[in-house]
Design goal:
The chain is of the alpha/beta class. Strands 2-1-3-4-5 form a five-stranded parallel β-sheet, with helices on both faces. Helix 1 links the parallel strand 1 and strand 2. The chain has 15 helices and five strands.
Length: 355
């Protein structure tokens, strides 16, 4: 559709009578960009090529009637909400109701009166212009809210990590890595990784370790290896994260972001073979976002520098994940995701080296 202004608004006139076409050209041609179709087939073809801002549609056409054309417009372009005004000589009240039910916004009756045609067309284009303005304003405000939410999420994630300086910005590094990995995975999971889902997973990844806020400093900040008892306490961060985010989800049960955040916080330490924690889930019992997070989390941990050790090279990290080292084994990971990680590792190595 064109940008709406008096000189630019595009009107498709669907009319088969030359004298009516000439008259409407005289009435509207100086103010609007007027296109002509003399039957339904021409009208649908014209709309497919370039949707107009408004359609003036004769009910009685030589091939398909105006009602059929109107139904097609509303079905083919529901997102555009193209205003349709029926133009007709004689029509019953029932037919008028039928047209309005199909989505038409008005009727103009023949013979045409200049003032009526001009005013009704102008009114509908003004309404369309105002609706578009409101949609743009809502979209702008929604985007501003989303950006604010992203900022708050980042701050919350960093506040969690602030207590644990030894992790070296683990949360932001995993976000960069998972952003790359999702682009690799998308073609193989078209139903699960839509544009919206990918964005939600990326932002939710910031909260995957939020449960560490409940881990005592004596364990979280310990520079040496954890004892068996301490490690058991550390593993509780997955359940703690799940509980914290579930409290938010209880308040906003339809929030898709929170649903994914819960999955990633609760299950990113679950293993494909069932040997993980906290619930010992196995295979596809583990939600996809958590299965993706699992391999990224391990890779980041292996390649990142810590205050108590130097991070290993991306190649060595890949070898451990793909071949295992006793502590990490390939069976921990979804085989399909593991294969894609391995075949695209050069891209991961570049990211890991740059951050």
């Amino acid at each position: 559709m064109t940008t709406l202004s008096k000189t630019q608004a595009s009107i498709l006139l669907v009319e088969d009578q030359k004298e009516n076409i000439d008259l409407l050209r005289t009435i509207l041609g100086n103010e609007y960009k007027l296109r002509i179709a003399t039957n339904g087939a021409m009208a649908t073809h014209s709309i497919m090529n370039q949707p107009p801002d408004l359609v003036l549609l004769d009910v009685g056409l030589p091939d398909m009637d105006g009602f059929e054309v109107c139904r097609w417009i509303k079905t083919a372009f529901p997102q555009l909400s193209i205003p349709v005004i029926f133009i007709t000589a004689a029509i019953s009240e029932l037919d008028e109701e039928r047209g309005l039910e199909l989505g038409a916004v008005d009727y103009i009756h023949k013979p045409y009166k200049r003032s009526i045609v001009k005013n009704r067309v102008r009114n509908q284009l003004d309404l369309l212009r105002y609706r578009n303005y409101l949609q743009e304003e809502v979209a702008a405000q929604t985007e501003q809210i989303r950006e604010t939410q992203k900022g708050l999420l980042t701050a919350l994630a960093l506040a969690t990590e602030y207590r644990d300086q030894k992790t070296g910005a683990h949360i932001l590094r995993t976000k960069k890595l998972i952003t790359l990995f999702l682009e690799v995975l998308r073609p193989f999971y078209p139903d699960d990784l839509s544009d919206e889902a990918v964005e939600l997973i990326i932002e939710a990844s910031l909260l995957h370790d939020i449960g560490k806020i409940g881990i005592p400093d004596s364990i979280l900040l310990k520079n040496g290896p954890l004892t068996t008892e301490e490690y058991s306490v550390m593993k509780e961060h997955a359940k703690t994260g799940q509980e914290l985010l579930n409290k938010a989800l209880d308040q906003y049960p339809d929030n898709e972001f929170l649903k994914i955040a819960v999955q990633m916080a609760a299950y990113h330490h679950e293993h494909w073979d069932g040997s993980g924690y906290p619930y010992g889930l196995k295979g596809e019992e583990i939600p996809l976002p958590a299965r993706i997070m699992a391999i990224v989390d391990v890779y980041e941990s292996l390649t990142a520098n810590r205050v108590y050790r130097q991070g290993m090279s991306p190649e060595n990290a890949k070898k451990i994940i793909v071949e295992g080292d006793g502590r990490v084994v390939p069976d921990h990971f979804d085989p399909k995701i593991l294969s894609l990680f391995s075949s695209h590792h050069q891209e991961f190595a570049k990211i890991a080296s740059s951050i």
